[in-house]
Amino acid sequence: FYAWPSRGAARGYLADTATVQVSARHLVGFLEDIVRRSGAKQVNLIAHSMGSRALTEALELYAARHTEARNVFDQVIFAAPDVDADLFALQARAMHRLATRVTLYSSNADVALSTSRALHGDAPRAGGGGQVPLIGPGFDTVDMTVLGGEVLQHTYFATDSTALADILWLFWRNPAPSARCGMVETDLADGVYWVYRSENCEEDLLLPAITLARRFGAAALERIEAMRADPGTEADASELDALRALLAEILPGVRAEPVRRD
User: Fold this and answer.
1) What is the rounded CA–CA span in Å between residue 164 and residue 182?
2) Could you write out the DSSP letters of every residue in the chain?
3) What angle in degrees, to the nearest 10, is found between the helix axes of 51-65 and 85-95?
4) Per-residue pLDDT reduced to its tens digit, 168-179
5) CB 100 within 8 A of CB 71
6) Are 49 and 112 in contact (CB under 8 A)?
């Protein structure tokens, strides 16, 4: 976690716009330390809202400092980024070589970004807010407008289980949008983006299915059978059957039928 000194309130928004730029200069040093000293085999980065300004600028500075660096980070995810759309597209040219994949989650219904757009003279935001999704080379755009549930519809990536499952899937296997649950390809004149349709996914089961598959691999089906045999399990037989079917889709070569024992 990297905390920058945001005031965390609407009335402190303008002050935060200045603070976040300074924070980017400190963040790039933090990222260099993580890469050099952590010993991690995989480093994933997620930024939300105005925090995305710090990360885009930090990655741009990182790329300038390390001109030969490639795929230093695995997944770089911008959730509802409150960044000028044109600036984000330009910065993506520098930062995409630092990551295995860059993902932009946007929402046309994001009230917070609609307000930010008005405050910035109607300049579109990278994360949406009453506009056509931003697309460009170097990043995948996923339109999450279907999700929401809170007043500003600005934190959908962290409050919806299927959005969390999509992030986990990226961390685990790095699949392209076309290989992930619920993604519908949509064409624009200058490229494509992906519209997320939650009705195409098993909302309540997708996250636990991926978690089981990631932790146990092919043995995940054995875990389901153990849950079935456990009298204290809260899941009923139909839920376990659906979970088994999902695992068969997630794990190639895994049988969908129940495990039989003599």
Assistant:
1) 13
2) --------SGGGHHHHHHHHHHHHHHHHHHHHHHHHHS--S---EEEETTHHHHHHHHHHHHHHH-TT--S-EEEEEEES--SBHHHHHHHHHHHGGGEEEEEEEEBTT-HHHHHHHHHTTTPPBTTBSSSPPP--TT-EEEE-TT---STT---HHHH-HHHHHHHHHHHHH---GGGSTTEEEEEETTEEEEEE-GGGS-HHHHHHHHHHHHHHGGGHHHHHHHHHH-TT----HHHHHHHHHHHHHHSTT---SPPP--
3) 40
4) 889 988 999 998
5) yes
6) yes
Q: How far apart are the C-alpha atoms of 173 and 253, rounded to whole Å?
A: 16
Looking at residue 17, its amino acid is T
Return the structure tokens found at 45. Answer: 């980065």
pLDDT tens for 201-240 read: 766 787 788 888 888 888 888 888 888 888 877 778 888 8
Confidence of residue 256 (pLDDT cuts 50, 70, 90): very low
Position 184 scores a pLDDT of 94
* Buried/exposed 165-201: b ≥16 CB within 10 Å, e otherwise: bbbbbbeeeeeebeebbbbeeeeeeeeebbbbebeeb
Angle (CA) 52 174 185, round 5°: 80
